[in-house]
Write a structure and sequence with these properties.
With about 450 residues, the chain is α/β, with parallel strands linked by helices. It has helices spanning about 15-25, 35-45, 60-70, 85-95, 110-140, 150-160, 180-185, 205-215, 230-235, 250-260, 290-295, 300-305, 320-335, 345-355, 360-375, 385-390, 400-420, 425-430, 435-445; strands at about 5-10, 30-35, 50-55, 55, 60, 75-80, 100-105, 170, 195-200, 215, 230, 240-245, 265, 275, 280-285, 310, 345, 380. The two termini are about 50 Å apart.
Length: about 450
């Protein structure tokens, strides 16, 4: 049985009464109004899910009411009723935003199924709205962790440009958080309700990147058995984030320039242009001006991408934020692993703050994940740091080669136990190559589950 609140709007009392009885028998709450003024008044007082409205009312038309409701109560579905089927009216009603349009009497048997579909549409819209609110919270400016002056200034710049449609170029080292900023810019823009599509330009060879980005027509090349939408098309209405843009091949750079200048592109194997409405954000860890000077990057594309530049500071330049970020990751990983870790020892914090962080926030995240795995108490200590860090700090710096090997063996064993023998995951957590993991297993005779 469907549940919800329905509003019937019709100036004929007999028809209102009939509709009220039909709908109420389904267990729905039904309200009634004789004109548009009464309908708007009820909508302001009650959380109505579906409006069933006559096309002709004493103080206006049902189509005018549709337009007004779409502005004031955008999630409410409206079904219009008319005495006579009229194609121009039905087209106008649907364009105004009506959920559907049916004829009185002739379509009475269609009314309840139509209400059920409208209620389902309303439910899905609410769910989408909640998901959008959650995304907006996750990528709000407050969600970017840091109290240092340099990161607050960076956030302020991103917040200023996010409401516009301006092309933004994000500069920064690998792992500094460029994609996080790109997502936050999108989530706080007028395009937030539409897709955010991210592509790493360094992850594909030229031909594959072209197909991924622009899509292709069936038969464009061997293996292209059907048409494929590219990521530009998937981002329609929203934002396309191109990470490592400096790695893009020169031929594709010219095609991307066309997207920025003409808002159109050609799919691989097609001679017909496809129009697109997207915002482009890009990022690189390279110095693009040097790439331009060296003839490796198009100058005209650089100027189009470089309308507004934001430089993401490396972690070593925001030492005040290291402890805050560490606490954030400790909470995530301790919850994930059902551990009750609520702090860090002084030596642990000092080690973090004195580290060079060449891998930036991504490296810090991995270090904390390993530390939480290794920890068996309530607070992270120096003993939970990676073995290579411990070699440089007391008491491990004075260990003999044999003792050092014992520490390394124990560390690798505990990580492999945590990953349940998954060597790929262990290599990632240990920050070493997979072949090194296999070599250490053989060298130390480590037992793998």
């Amino acid at each position: 049985m469907i549940t919800g609140k329905i509003l019937v709007v019709d100036d004929e009392e007999k028809i209102r009464g009939l509709l009220l009885r039909i709908i109420a028998l389904e267990g729905l709450y039904v309200f009634e109004a004789a004109d548009t003024a009464g309908a708007v008044n009820l909508l302001q007082r009650e959380e109505i899910d579906v409006v069933i409205c006559d096309v002709r009312l004493p103080d206006g038309s049902g189509i005018d009411l549709v337009r007004r409701v779409r502005v004031l109560f955008p999630d409410v579905a409206i079904i219009l009723l008319t005495a006579y089927a009229n194609i121009p009216d039905s087209v106008e009603a649907m364009r105004a935003g009506a959920f559907d349009y049916i004829v009185k009497g002739d379509d009475n048997d269609k009314l309840l199924p139509l209400i059920a579909r409208a209620m389902e549409s309303r439910r899905l819209q609410k769910r989408v709205g909640l998901l959008e609110e959650r995304v907006a919270r996750n990528f709000s400016w407050d969600h970017i962790i840091g109290g240092s002056a340099v990161i607050r200034e960076t956030i302020a710049m991103a917040a200023k440009v996010s409401p516009s449609d301006t092309t933004v170029l994000l500069l920064g080292e690998t792992g500094a958080g460029k994609e996080l900023f790109a997502r936050a810019i999108h989530a706080n823009s007028k395009r937030a309700r539409y897709p955010f599509v991210a592509l790493n330009c360094s992850a594909f060879q030229k031909d594959l990147l072209e197909s991924e980005l622009f899509g292709h027509k069936a038969g464009a090349f061997t293996g292209a058995f059907k048409d494929k939408r590219g990521l530009i098309e998937e981002a329609e209405g929203g934002t396309l984030f191109l990470d490592e843009i400096g790695e893009m091949h020169a031929d594709l750079q010219s095609k991307l320039l066309r997207v920025l200048e003409a808002r159109q592109f050609f799919k691989v194997g097609s001679t017909v242009a496809t129009m697109v409405d997207i915002r482009i954000l890009s990022a690189t860890n390279r110095h693009l001006q040097e790439q331009v000077d060296a003839g490796k990057f198009r100058q005209d594309l650089f100027y189009r991408l470089n309308v507004f530049t934001i430089e993401i500071p490396p972690l070593r330049e925001r030492k005040k934020d290291i402890a805050l970020l560490a606490k954030y990751f400790i909470k995530i990983f301790s919850d994930k692993m059902n551990k009750k870790i609520d702090g860090m020892g002084k030596g642990f914090v000092e080690a973090l703050e004195n580290h060079a962080w060449k891998g930036n926030i991504r490296e810090l995240k991995n270090v904390i994940e390993r530390a939480v795995i290794m920890n068996e108490g309530l607070s992270l200590t120096e003993e939970d740091l990676p073995v290579e860090w411990q070699m440089e700090r007391s008491p491990f710096r004075n260990l003999s080669a044999f003792e050092l090997a014992s520490v390394e063996k124990l560390h690798i064993q505990r990580v492999l136990n945590y990953t349940r023998g998954n060597k790929v995951k262990a290599a990632r957590l240990l920050n070493i190559g997979l072949t090194t993991v296999y070599r250490k297993i053989d060298e130390y005779g480590i037992l793998v589950l």
